[in-house]
Amino acid sequence: MTPVPPPTDLPGASAAPGDTQWWPAPTSRGPLSAHVQVPGSKSETNRALLLAATADTPGRVRGALDSRDTRLMTEALEALGADFSREAPTGDLLVTPLGRPRGGATLNCGLAGTVLRFLPPLAALAEGTTTFIGDEAAQVRPVRPVLAALETWGARVTSLGEPGFLPFQVSGAGALPLPGAPREVEVDASASSQFVSALLLSAPLMDGPVTVRARGRVVSLPHVAMTVAALRARGVRVDTLLDEGGASHSWTVSPGRPRGGEVTIDPDLSNAGPFLAAALVCGGTVRVAHWPTHTTQAGDAWRHLLPRMGADVVLDEGGLRVDGPGREGLLGIDADLSDVGELTPTVAALAVLATTPSRITGIAHLRGHETDRLAALATEITRLGGQVRELPDGLEIHPVPLHAARLRTYGDHRMATFAAVVGLAVPGVEVQDVATTSKTLPGSPRLWTSMLSGGDRGRGGTGDPGGTRGAGRTGKRP
Fold this sequence. Notes:
With 478 residues, the chain is of the alpha/beta class. It has helices spanning 42-53, 68-79, 113-123, 144-153, 194-202, 221-233, 269-282, 302-308, 344-353, 373-383, 413-423, 444-452, and strands at 22-24, 32-36, 59-62, 83-86, 93-96, 106-108, 127-133, 156-159, 168-173, 184-188, 210-215, 238-242, 248-253, 261-264, 284-288, 312-316, 319-324, 334-336, 358-361, 387-391, 394-398, 406-407, 430-432, 456-457. Strand 20 and strand 21 form a beta hairpin.
């Protein structure tokens, strides 16, 4: 099989060993017996923050994730007129909603897709111009479908670089759609479900009912279901129209601010994946506490994916328990991950260590995530001595002996967890910039080593400054 050369055009690909810190990934010393409590869901948190910021009365968000992505969201929402504070000792976020969004702000999206895509519609409802900037790597993350929809409704978008990407400006007139503008917009969501969610989340503030229609296939459809569920839980009417096959293609949202009040965030089930995967690699048991019995999170798919790779999985009142076979019983998988693409790096890590081949498809949209994840995974698997073939919409992986390597992350938190899982079975793996995991999982290295030692960390109990709950802290910044 032809090796895949390291790409030279990936964001972060120019980083050299002398330019960064390298974390030695710990190797397993035997079967695990660990209880893990992962912090709150980033996807749920950022939806809850936006809806609380636009609600009709003040609110409270319990269990909100405190990470770089969620801080970028609260800072941006505050710039638009909302107010957030953290209550001691509960760590709950107290939210004072904005009235009409304020124009004139500059919003830093960092590398957070939710900030990049979710906030332009809210800014378009302000009077004045809002400027959007972000990390260098974020400047290749597409946002054109959202901006085009806002222009259809009457907002003005000004590109400050390549059209459809950061940086850009959004100018609104205080209300949308403008008189004479169509009330329905069509969105190509084949690259990201966030394009649909972005429009739905601000739709209750629009001037009358609006309809968002997805053209073609919607990737990561569970994330749209999460958005619809969050809106309905706050009293917003959302009518979902189905095609003959039962797939969601159109959503009509009635006007009316979301209800304020209290909402509780579930654990991040996608971030739980690497910890559950450790049981398959090392053998033994890993249990993740507080796993919800009903959820729209994509990470709930672990309950169905991991048994196909050799695990025993049980969901009970104690959480989700995974009993793994160890590497000798780890099986490859043939899976379409189009609905749950964010799980791909961890599935790929297991596939690299498996005893049989794997084929992972339906994930062409991962080329537009924090980095081109397909190219990045193929490159790092090759760096380990692995056999991988990059497909138009996925990866094909064949088991071969692996060797030590320094694995790059490209500023992508899920590439760091990919490397950590591989490092459980391959001595000498070092991970570039493991701190990038703070994007969605602060204190990840400490939580990882605690799991391997059989420890039990609470949510936010990583010991790091800025832990998830922030117990005992008060102030403006969550």
